[in-house]
Amino acid sequence: MYFASDNWAGAHQSIAQRLLEASAGFASAYGTSDLDKKVEARFCEVFEREVAVFFVATGTAANSLSLASVQRPGGVTFCHSEAHVIEDECGAPEFFSGSARLVAVPGESGKIDPARLSAKISSFPEDAVHHGRASAITITQATEIGTVYSLPEIGEISAIAKKRSLALHMDGARFANALVALGATPAEMTWKRGVDMLSFGGTKNGCWCAEAIVFFNPDRAKEMPFIRKRAAQLFSKSRFIAAQFDAYFKNDLWLDLARHANSMADGLRGGIGASNCARLAWPTASNEVFAVVTKSAARTAENRGATFYEWPVPAATPDLVEGNETLIRLVTSFATTKADVDGFLKCLAT
Amino acid sequence: MYFASDNWAGAHQSIAQRLLEASAGFASAYGTSDLDKKVEARFCEVFEREVAVFFVATGTAANSLSLASVQRPGGVTFCHSEAHVIEDECGAPEFFSGSARLVAVPGESGKIDPARLSAKISSFPEDAVHHGRASAITITQATEIGTVYSLPEIGEISAIAKKRSLALHMDGARFANALVALGATPAEMTWKRGVDMLSFGGTKNGCWCAEAIVFFNPDRAKEMPFIRKRAAQLFSKSRFIAAQFDAYFKNDLWLDLARHANSMADGLRGGIGASNCARLAWPTASNEVFAVVTKSAARTAENRGATFYEWPVPAATPDLVEGNETLIRLVTSFATTKADVDGFLKCLAT
Amino acid sequence: MYFASDNWAGAHQSIAQRLLEASAGFASAYGTSDLDKKVEARFCEVFEREVAVFFVATGTAANSLSLASVQRPGGVTFCHSEAHVIEDECGAPEFFSGSARLVAVPGESGKIDPARLSAKISSFPEDAVHHGRASAITITQATEIGTVYSLPEIGEISAIAKKRSLALHMDGARFANALVALGATPAEMTWKRGVDMLSFGGTKNGCWCAEAIVFFNPDRAKEMPFIRKRAAQLFSKSRFIAAQFDAYFKNDLWLDLARHANSMADGLRGGIGASNCARLAWPTASNEVFAVVTKSAARTAENRGATFYEWPVPAATPDLVEGNETLIRLVTSFATTKADVDGFLKCLAT
Amino acid sequence: MYFASDNWAGAHQSIAQRLLEASAGFASAYGTSDLDKKVEARFCEVFEREVAVFFVATGTAANSLSLASVQRPGGVTFCHSEAHVIEDECGAPEFFSGSARLVAVPGESGKIDPARLSAKISSFPEDAVHHGRASAITITQATEIGTVYSLPEIGEISAIAKKRSLALHMDGARFANALVALGATPAEMTWKRGVDMLSFGGTKNGCWCAEAIVFFNPDRAKEMPFIRKRAAQLFSKSRFIAAQFDAYFKNDLWLDLARHANSMADGLRGGIGASNCARLAWPTASNEVFAVVTKSAARTAENRGATFYEWPVPAATPDLVEGNETLIRLVTSFATTKADVDGFLKCLAT
C-alpha cells in the first residue's frame, strides 16, 4: 500500500527490459546515436509537429532549463503559489536563469487564476527597470494538488501570455496523467493551446529516469544545447534515456500506465467518498487524491503498512480539517494494484 | 572496432541485470532507500573510512559541484591545461561556483607540473583582492591523455595544496583504470595521499549512468545536499544509480572491468609499438592509447569499420606528426574484445 | 516644490565643499587612504563599537552585497512585501547571492508582521532540501511607506532571527530620518537590538553618492572585500566617498539634515490633516507623506509646479481612495524649504 | 613624486568645481535629468554618431557589463594575457556574464597577437558544445603596459572578430591617453575600426568617478538598462557623474589632461633613456613608463618620497633585469608636475 509518491515505484517491466536490451553494443555518445534520433522522431510524431527534444536528468532540470532559455536580465516568471518550481526545487529555476525571480500567483484548485495573473503581470510595465520585467509563465499539468487544467483554461492563460509576448511553459511531470484525464491529444494539450515549452516527465509514470524538454518551435531552442551542457545535464550514454522513452511510447504504453494510475486513484476517490471516517478534501482528476481522514483511521492505515504523506492544510481553507482529523495525500502509479487500493479503503471502514 | 570512446559502450550485463531486478517494488525516493544506504555503506568499505557520497547525473556535474562546494567569492581553481574541466565542460565548473575561475597549469604527460603549480599559486597572494584567491586544485586520474599520476606524484601535489590550505579534488572519470594500473587501493590513491574530494566515475567503466561525489571528510559535505538539489542533480528514483553501483562493486566487478579495458589497451600498445606504419605518440598506462599512424593506415582502419578520433597535435610537440601521418586516440572499455584489437592492428600491417 | 523623491535633491553645500577640498593632492587608492581610514574610525565612534565598513555605489549594492555575504546554497531571505529589495532592485539581491530567494512577508504599516514572519520561517524546516532554507531577514528603517519600526519592534524581529540563527539586515536608505524620528542613537537602533548588517545610506540625506555597508561583527565581514570587488563596487578614488561622509558626520550635520527633512514633512502632515480636499492616507513618522487628495487639487499642484508621484492604492485597502481622489507620495529632503511646503499646502486650500 | 598610479590623483579643479555648481537645485533621478541628457548628446558629438551611453561606478563595472551584454551560455571572451579583466578584476567579468570564460591570448608589447588570436578562436568551432563558444574579444587601449594599438592594429583584430561575428570591446580606462598618443579622433579609434562597445574611463584622467559604457550601435544596448540595474550600478543622483563629464568634455579639457600626463611621461622616458642607472624596460606611448633601475636608485627615490610600484618581470623576458636591478612602473596623471618628474630623474643621477 505505497501511496507516498509515484516516484517510490521502480520502473515498468517493459521499460526495464528495453534498457537491458539496449545495454549491448556500441553507439555514439552525447545524444547522437541512432536510438536517440529515433526517439526524437517519435516525439515529433507524438506531438504531430517538428519539435526539438532535450533529455535531462530530473524534472527540476527540465523546468529550470526551460525557463532559463527564455530569461532576460531582470526577468520574472509567473507561477502558481503552490507550483513545484517555487515550492520544491531549492531555488534551481532562479539559479539556472541568472536569478530571474519567480512570482507566485494564487488561484483555486491549484491553478493560476487568470484575472490575478493579468493583474500581477500589469504590475510589471515594459521598460520598468526597477521592478524587473515579465518574461514567462509556467503552469503545471496535472497540478501539484491533483487537478487538471481544461483545454480552454490553458488557452486562457496562453492568451494572456501572448498579449505580453511571454513564453508559456508547462511543467508536465504528470503530463500523461493529465492527458488521459482530459482525453486530449498531446498536441491539443500543448502547442495547439499556445504552450511554447514542455517539461515532459516519464519518471513518475514508469521510467527509471526519463525527462525531456520539448520546444514546439525548434528555432527557439538554439541556445539549449549550450544551456544544457553548461548545466551538466548532457548524458554521455544518452541512449539509456532514449531506450526508456522508446519502450514508453511503444504501443502507447505511457497512456496505458497513466490510465492505470488514474483508475487506481478513481478507486480511492470512490471509496473515500463513501467512507464514514474520510472524505475527499477537494476533487482531483489525475493520480493524486487528497483526503481528510480521522486520525485514528490514518494510524490504522499506517499500522497496516500504508505509506502516504500528511499534507499541510491550505491557508485559504483553514477549516478544512477538524481536531480529530488530518489531511493526507495519496498518490497512485503504474505499480499500484487494486489490492493496495482495497486494502487501504478497508482501513477507513473500521 | 569501437575505439572512439569508452562512453560508446552500453552497460555491462551484470549491471544491466541488477537494474532490471531493482525495477520491481517500491522504495522511498531522493536517496533515502535501503539500497541507497547499502551502497553508501559499500563506498565506506571500498575507501576504508567514513565518506559522504552524493550521486549525480554526469561527470561534469561531479566535477562542477565538488569544486563549487569549496569555492569562495573571487576563488580560483588550478587544473592542468588539458583537463576535462577546462576543455570539455562548457563552463559548467565556473557556472556552478559563482564564476570561480579555472587557471590552467601546464605540465608534461598530461599531469600538472608541481613547480609550475607552486609558481602559479604564488601569483595569487592571500588577500590580494584584485587578483582573486587560490581556492582549490583539481587533478585528473587517469589523465585526459591516458597517463597516470603515481602515488608520490599525487602526494607532491597534495603537499602544495596543504601549504596554502587549498582543497584537492580528483576527477576520477577513469578512476578504476588508474587504480588497477597502479595496483593501489582506493584509499591509497585518494585520502591517504591528501585528496579531499573525488568525482568517482562508473559510467565509462560499464555503468549506464553512475557518478558519485565522494567527500573523505563528511564534515566538509554539509552544504552539498543543497548544492546538489539547487543544481537539479538530485534523482527521485535514486536507487537506479544505487543498483548500478551495487553490481559494480559486487565481487570487485569494477576492478575486473577496468583490468580488461587496460589489458585491451596493452594489446593495442604492443601492436602499435611493433608496427611499421604506426608508433605510440607517448606512453600511456590506462585504457587510452595515442598513436601516430600513417594517413593511409588510418583510412584503411576506418574503411574496415574502426571508429576513433583524430586528435589535435599538442602545441608543445608540433613535430610529433609528419605530413603523411595523423595523431589518433584509441579508447578501450569493458566491452572491447580481443578480436577488435587484433582487427585494428591488422589494419596497421598493410 | 519638489516632492518626487529625496534623490532629486543635489548635495548639501558642506558636503559638496568638502569634496572640492579633497580634490587636491594624492592619496593611495582602493580605500587605503588616510581619509578612508579616518572615516572608518568615525563610523566606529558613531556606532559606539568596532565595525567593518565598506563603501559601495548604490543602496541596491549595499542591500544586495550585505545579503549575499550571508547566503548559502538554496538560501532564502525574508523581507516585507513592499520592501525596496523585492520591489525596486530588478533582482539584484538574488543576482549577487547566487539566486537566493526573497520571500515576502506582509504586515501593516509597511512593517513585517512578527507572527506572520515566524509562520513563514517555520515553513522552511532545517535540512528541507527541496524548499530551500531560511538564511536572513531584512527590514527597512524608515520603511518604504514612511513609517518607522520602534526599538521594541526591531527587537521582536531580531529575537525571531536569533531563534533560527538568521542574519538580520537593516536597509537604512533613510536611516537618519528614522533615527531622529525615534530620538535613538545609531547603536540603539542597530546592534543593541540585534541587527547584524546595515545598509547605511547617505545619498538620500544630502550626499551625492555615499552608501556604506556596516558589519557590527567585523569577523563576519571577511568575505566582503572579495564580494565587493567581484561585484565591481570597489572605487579606485574611494576617498571621494570618504570625503562626503567626513562632512556628513561633522558636527552631526547628518542628523540636522534629517531633522530638517522630517520637520518639512511634519509641515505637510499638519497642513494635509487640516485640509478639506486632502487627508493623510496613513500616519508616517519620517520624511515621506502619503496623502489622499482630490484629483483637482492634485492637478492644481502640478500646474503650479509641484512634482510628486501618484502611488498605487495598497491591495489591502482598496477603499482608501474615492472616485474623484488619488493617492500621492510626497518626499521631503534637506533641500526642501518651508516656502515649498507652504506653496504646496496652498494648492490644497482652493 | 606620486607615480604609483593615475588613480592616486584627486579630481581636476574644473571638474570638482563643476560638481560643486551642480550640487544645488533639484533634478529627476536615475539618469533622466536634463544634465544627463545633455551629456549623452555630448557623447554623440564626441564620437560623431548616435551612441548609447551608460554611466557606471567603476572601470571593472564598465568592462564586466559590456562583456555581459554580449554573452551567451558557454560563451568565451578572448583577452590579452595581461589584461585588466583577467588580472585585476577578481572574476567580475565572469560573474556578471553567467560565468563566461576569459581566454588569455599572448602577444608582445601588451597587445593581442592577431595570429595567435585566430588560432585560439579556431579551437572553438561553432556548435562545439563541450568547449564553449567564442563570443567576444576585448582589447585594452592604452594597454596595461603603456603601449598603444595603432589604428591598423585595431582594424586587424576587428577583422578577426567580424569573421566569426564576435563582439569587439575596448577597455578604455586610459582611452584619452591612447587617443592623444595616436593623434586620432574618438571615432577613428573605435567604431570606424570596428569596435562595438567601449569602456570609456574618466576617473584615471581627472574625474572623481566617471565611467561610461558606450555602445556604437544603440540597438545592441537594449538589454543594458536591465543589466546595469540588476548589477546595482544605476546611480540615483546620476547627474553627479554627468556633471563631471560635462566639465571633462568642455573645451576639450579631457584631451588637454591626457596630453599633459603623456607629456610628463615623455619627460620620464627621456630622462630614463639618458640615465646611467636606469633604462626603459620597453617603449611606451601613453602615461605609463616601465623602467629597469638599479636597486640603489630605487631606494634613493623612495627615500626622497617617490611612490611607484615594483613590477613582476614578464615571464617571456626573464633576463630583463639583472641581480642589482628592479623593474618599476611609473604612472603620470593630470596632476603630475614637471617638478615631480625632474625630482624623480635626479634620483637616477646619483
UniProtKB/TrEMBL annotation, chains A, B, C, D:
Its cofactor is pyridoxal 5'-phosphate. Residues 3-291 form the Aromatic amino acid beta-eliminating lyase/threonine aldolase domain. InterPro entries: ArAA_b-elim_lyase/Thr_aldolase (IPR001597), Low_specificity_L-TA_bact (IPR026273), PyrdxlP-dep_Trfase (IPR015424), PyrdxlP-dep_Trfase_major (IPR015421), PyrdxlP-dep_Trfase_small (IPR015422). Keywords: Lyase, Pyridoxal phosphate. The keyword Isomerase does not apply. It comes from the Bacteria. Its EC number is 4.1.2.48. It catalyses: L-allo-threonine = acetaldehyde + glycine; L-threonine = acetaldehyde + glycine. One of its GO terms (biological process) is L-threonine catabolic process. Signal peptide: none annotated. It holds the Pfam family Beta_elim_lyase. PANTHER family: L-THREONINE ALDOLASE-RELATED, LOW SPECIFICITY L-THREONINE ALDOLASE. Belongs to the threonine aldolase family. Catalyzes the cleavage of L-allo-threonine and L-threonine to glycine and acetaldehyde. This is L-threonine aldolase. It comes from Rhizobium mongolense USDA 1844.
